[in-house]
C-alpha cells in the first residue's frame, strides 16, 4: 500500500516538472519527500497499534477478592445480622403466641357460654342470706334467703325464699316462695313446690300449689298435681285430669 502511494506521488511530480519546467523541480521533490515521510510515519504508527498486544483490563481474581474483603472485612457483621434477625423472629413469635392461644381458647369459652358453665352462681343448702341477691348469671339456689332475687339469667331452686323473684326463667323443684314471681320467658313448678304470690311469664307449667293470681302471655299448662287458688289470665290453656283451679279464668288474645 505504501509502495503504490509512493509511485503515484513520483509520477505526479514528473508530470508537474514537465508541465511547469525544471525550475520548480527542486520544490516539488521536497514536497514529495515530505509527503513520503508523513505517509511512512502514519504506516509505522498503524503497525505499532496493530502489533501492540491487548492490555488486560479485567481485574484479577485477587483484586476482586481484596475489594470484597474491604467491604466485608470478616464474618462478624454477617453473624451480628443473623443474631438480630433471630431476635426479631422470636419477638414476633411472642407477639403472635397470645393471639394463637386466645383463638384456641375461644371454642371452649363459646361452649361454656352456651351451656352456662362460665356464668353460674350456686347457693348451697347451709347458706342463709338476709338481703337482696342481684346478679346477671344463672343461679342454683338451695339455701334460704330473706330478700328478693333479681337476675338476668336462669334460676333453678329447691330452697326457701321470703321475697320476690325476677329472672329470665325459673324452675322450682320442691321449693317454697313467699312473694311475687316475674319471668321474661318460662316458669316451671314441679310437685312439692309452694308459691304464695302472683306469677307472670310467657309460658307457665304448673304441677304444684299456687296461692295467687297467674298471668300467662302464651301457654298455661296445669298438670295432674296442680292446685291454683287465684284468678288465671292466659292466651291458651291446657288442663290435665286431676288439676284443681279455684278462681276466675280469663282468655285473652294478643
Automatic annotation (TrEMBL):
List the InterPro entries. BacA/B
Any matching Pfam family: Bactofilin
Q: Which family does it belong to?
A: Belongs to the bactofilin family.
The protein in question is named Polymer-forming cytoskeletal protein
Task: Provide the organism lineage as a comma list.
Answer: Bacteria, Bacillati, Bacillota, Erysipelotrichia, Erysipelotrichales
Amino acid at each position: 500500500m505504501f509502495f503504490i502511494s509512493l509511485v503515484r506521488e513520483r509520477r505526479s511530480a514528473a508530470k508537474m516538472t514537465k508541465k511547469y519546467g525544471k525550475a520548480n523541480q527542486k520544490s516539488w521533490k521536497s514536497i514529495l519527500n515530505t509527503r513520503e515521510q508523513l505517509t511512512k510515519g502514519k504506516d509505522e504508527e498503524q503497525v505499532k497499534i496493530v502489533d501492540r498486544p491487548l492490555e488486560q483490563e479485567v481485574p484479577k481474581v485477587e483484586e476482586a477478592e481484596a475489594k470484597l474483603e474491604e467491604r466485608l472485612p470478616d464474618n462478624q457483621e454477617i453473624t451480628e445480622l443473623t443474631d438480630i434477625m433471630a431476635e426479631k423472629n422470636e419477638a414476633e413469635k411472642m407477639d403472635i403466641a397470645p393471639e394463637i392461644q386466645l383463638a384456641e381458647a375461644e371454642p371452649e369459652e363459646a361452649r361454656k357460654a352456651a351451656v352456662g358453665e362460665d356464668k353460674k352462681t350456686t347457693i348451697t343448702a347451709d347458706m342463709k342470706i338476709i338481703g337482696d341477691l342481684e346478679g346477671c348469671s344463672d343461679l342454683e339456689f338451695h339455701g334460704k334467703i330473706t330478700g328478693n332475687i333479681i337476675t338476668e339469667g336462669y334460676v333453678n331452686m329447691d330452697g326457701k325464699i321470703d321475697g320476690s323473684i325476677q329472672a329470665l326463667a325459673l324452675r322450682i323443684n320442691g321449693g317454697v316462695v313467699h312473694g311475687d314471681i316475674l319471668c321474661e320467658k318460662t316458669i316451671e313448678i314441679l310437685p312439692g313446690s309452694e308459691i304464695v304470690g302472683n306469677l307472670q311469664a310467657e309460658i307457665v307449667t304448673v304441677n304444684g300449689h299456687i296461692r295467687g293470681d297467674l298471668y300467662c302471655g302464651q301457654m298455661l299448662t296445669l298438670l295432674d298435681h296442680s292446685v291454683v287458688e287465684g284468678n288465671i289470665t292466659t292466651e291458651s290453656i291446657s288442663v290435665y285430669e286431676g288439676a284443681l283451679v279455684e278462681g276466675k279464668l280469663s282468655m285473652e288474645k294478643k
